[in-house]
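Office hours follow-up: a student asked to see two folded examples consecutively, so here they are.
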Amino acid sequence: MTFTNHRNAFLKIFNATARYHHRHKVFEDFVSCAAIALHNGVMHDAELEKQYLSIIAGYEKQDAIQMAELLGHVVMALDEERCDFLGSVFMELELGDKYRGQFFTPWDVSRMMASLQLSGIDALMQGKDFITLQEPASGAGCMVIAFAEEFAQRGYTVSEQLWVSVTDVDPLAANMSYIQLSLCGIAAEVVTGNALTLERRRTLYTPLHYTARWAAKLGSANQRAA
């Protein structure tokens, strides 16, 4: 299946899933469960598992199965093409809420902005093993994914040379970021909180953060800087 096939399949399955719930609730619940599944597949957390089971308990068996199918299409779509898949389908499903500011940056705009940000990357990388990036209002992670794609196009290895810290005040947006950064192979911490007040209500690390031992790399870099 092509990227477009996966997108169309996602939309079709989503629209047929749990018609007894509001569409926004189904999307939020899907995103919450998908984020927990990806996290607990690498680093099990009992509290997250309880949250997952509590959410799924509100769905009939067939709808729970279809949620797993939705995640499968997200995985395969992002494997075909790195982009803001979840943000784009969220907008296409007309789930944006102008009062919560849930309007996501178009992919082409994000790529252009990332290209501008990386204009001096070669000089910045001299003498460095890796760089870190902070995104204080991550949305679905579009800007970070675009940055990583541009970074890779300049010959750098995203999994080894880029670590990201992203924050969003909205749990839905933070979970969307977590899913997409995880599936795009980006080492990151994803904070649900407020970057202005430094509030951190929840912090999740992507699978690559664990498997590539980024905690040790970041610790070593901090020791050298000190």
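And the second, which I mentioned at the end of office hours:
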Amino acid sequence: MKFIKYFLFTVLGLLAIILIVAAILPKNFHAGSTIVINKPSSEVFDYIKQIKKQGTYDSWSQQDPQIQKEYNGTDGTVGFSYTWKSKKVGDGKQIITKIEEGKRVDMDLFFNGSDQANKSFIQVDSLSPNQSEVHWEINGKMPYPFNLMSIFYDMSKDFDKGLATLKTILEK
């Protein structure tokens, strides 16, 4: 009986420590990456503004080839939405909210049925006539106690991998 009592107190103590750590950690997050692609910025932008093409380079689509995708609207225009369902990477929705033609696409991302938008963008800057720099970033909030995942998971690595794949595709 003493063992069970100590075991339960230990488990409750660990749970309390985990919840306290989660309460201290920031709820806001930022992730992103940048890469140089040896193609004109107009060519890079024309590719990245098509959200349907994200599935060819984003690391989340690569993690789950069985991801269920649904599109609504005209791709590459404000209001276009992409909804996905996946047992491996979760469910979500992405909506184009603003386009600065030839330069930047802003999007709202909603994860796992949340009504709180995470702000994301992909921006293309011309470095020379045949070289572009691509920035892909997201800012958002992670609810308590799920913000604890920030200790174990670095989303920027997914952006690094996605942009490296984009570079490979565009430089072929």
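Two things to take away from it. Residues 2-24 form the longest helix (23 residues). The chain has four helices and seven strands.
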